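Re: beginner question about structure tokens

> Can someone show what the tokenized structure looks like for a real chain? I only ever see the sequence side.

Sure, here's an example I had lying around. Input first:
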Amino acid sequence: MGPERTNAAGQRRSRPVVSAILCAAWLAGCAGHELPLRIGINAWPANEFLFLAQEKGFFAAQGVDVRLIEYSSLGDVRRAFDRGQIDGMTGTLVELLQSRDATRRAPRAFMVTDLSNGSDMILARGSIAAVSGLAGKRVAVEPESVGMFVLARALAREGMPFSAVAVVATDQTDMAKNLDSGWVDAAVTYPPVSFEILQIPGTRVIFSSADIPREVVNVVALAGDVLERRLDDAARIVRAWDQSLAYAAEHPSEARELMASRERISVEEFGEALAGITLLSSNEQRPLFEPGGLLAKAIGATAQLLRAAAQIRNGSASAECLAPEPLVRANARG
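And the corresponding structure tokens:
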């Protein structure tokens, strides 16, 4: 994702020289060895392919030292990144834009892991059978995350303002408990938490990312200064990602068992979660990064919605948010 004194006449003069020599030697040794890239990550089906790359040694095989640091929610990942505790993060365009708006870390996405096509969802209980039924209701949403975007899009499609609902800031780990107790009427969530919530009697999906195809985009981003120094390492991460996808395709049973166990869901549930996303290889990602392509359009639309919902003050030009160079380098070698 540290001296002793005896002879004042002699050692005080010699110690700075010795220290300088040792420091120079240490710096020389470090010059050829980069520190691990610390990337924050949370539970999400596509992110498991990054853990698979780590488990199978694909990062090491590509010559990049990556430390995946797991957090309980997207919001926690972004806050750790904003505080400078990690070098990069997995998340959506929402977290990317929010971080750029709130800090000077200037994260740039260099890889798209997947497009959500149903796995991000709004679940409701009782008599609420559609988004229109949320008017005046309490909705659990993870603050400063893609959940706000999903809720805003759902309401906008019904012609409802964001203020039509009472947002209850809730961590993903508390979604099921709060919905089951009746503290909230609906929850914006995603796997694996969604499977726990759907076990609550009378709970149903009233909206999902399948209703807004290709709008919820999941990416891997690095801080701007980190990416500038380590473009080649970012390209190595891309190649390791491709290796992970290929391995899972060649060994589906083994890979799914491993990934499902990490998510603490069944293999069948993990397969269902994967059905709600579209995983992308590096070759499939490259067109998305083109000027005027899907990512540029999605960033513009996402920024506009977040501003309207008072989630960010300013948007960022797509060129500032995206870094296509690692994909180009990864494919050039391939």
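Each token stands for a local structural state, so reading them left to right follows the chain. The first strand starts at residue 37 and ends at 42.
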